[in-house]
């Protein structure tokens, strides 16, 4: 258990200890709960709650907002919340436990669950907000640190998997190195093992996890078979691809290779199968453990805020177009007799 989880677990034990003098009360759904009352204002309709949550099973932490770096923000809706949540006040702490027997009986349990135990949730009502705007504003203060924590967590997991798959990475590397040598291609190898060959240098700083890259690409196998492209109309999506470098929504080899590129860069990424589609491949076009090569052009680099603004504007435009089409269709419908 890492240091941050130890601190979270310690806080959880303090919370449970504070409830030890109280008996659990049985809720309608069969779960049991205790409440330590705070001294803040009571929640009212239209409010929003900021919740710190820790979920444990035995000594294992299943979920922690502290570990994720992002509290949960939920609307105070008495119709959807449990009854014991309806008189909640700021500063309240709740301990909710559910028997693994009931979870397993409902066929909702995980394979590692054993009968005779409990899943325990500790919930702290940290803040109550009077409007969604104020809750959204508070949530934004957590987004940056939470994103950085999630990014680093993903990096750590990938590098753990690399150590466990060293043999496949070694095999991939030899195939790529031989391929490049056979074609007399000069490419730089990243720490992870992606080979990057820049054909047109760009300008400005290299891409980082704080950027959104605007990309044109074509993906091929080492047998020169094209499996996807956003510049070839044959693939039906001729439009720029936006890649948020702080999120792994594309294959890991892209994130790793793009860090060597700048605005205006053109080049090729030679990606080991491990950082592409792995042992499963993407049939029928990409075989298991198949290394890939991508032609890449970074047409622009924008901020995450600018990207979200563009997406919102596009969504609004689409909604307007749909409304106009619906109005036109209604106008074209034949009118009934007066």
Short description:
The chain is an alpha+beta fold. It has helices at 3-18, 65-68, 100-105, 132-164, 166-183, 252-258, 304-332; strands at 25-26, 32-36, 48-57, 60-64, 72-75, 93-99, 118-129, 188-189, 195-200, 211-221, 226-229, 241-244, 266-271, 292-303. The protein is globular, with a radius of gyration of 26 Å.
Main beta sheet strand tally, sense and closure: 7 strands, antiparallel
**What distance separates the N and C termini?**
76 Å
SS elements, strand count = 14
Mean pLDDT: 89
Count of DSSP H/I helices? 7
Identify the overall geometry.
globular
N-to-C order of helices and strands = HEEEEHEEHEHHEEEEEHEEH
What integer value in Å does the Rg equal? 26 Å
Class derived from helix and strand content:
alpha+beta
Helix content: 25-40%
Beta-sheet strand percentage?
Answer: 25-35%
Uncertain regions: pLDDT < 50 for 5+ in a row?
1-14
Brief descriptors of the model:
338 residues; alpha+beta; 7-stranded antiparallel β-sheet; globular; disordered N terminus
